Amino acid sequence: MREETKEKIIKALEIAKTIVHWGFIPAILYLGFTRSHPKPSLISMPSSMPSGVSSCMPPSMPWLLSSLMPSRY
Question: Of 40, 51, 46, 45, nearest to 64 (Cα)?
């Protein structure tokens, strides 16, 4: 195999590795949002988080989540 061909294969594999590295989680989230029934909403997602999640967040995060959640009267 020529040296030029080897370099092109190595470069293509590096690009593929980067795409998989940065695209795997977003792809899984996309599939989860588009294939689930009922369709989840990004706005209602923080209100569906378990209560234990806010206990492991920095002090400013629960306030931020509560300001984003719709109020239920």
Answer: 46
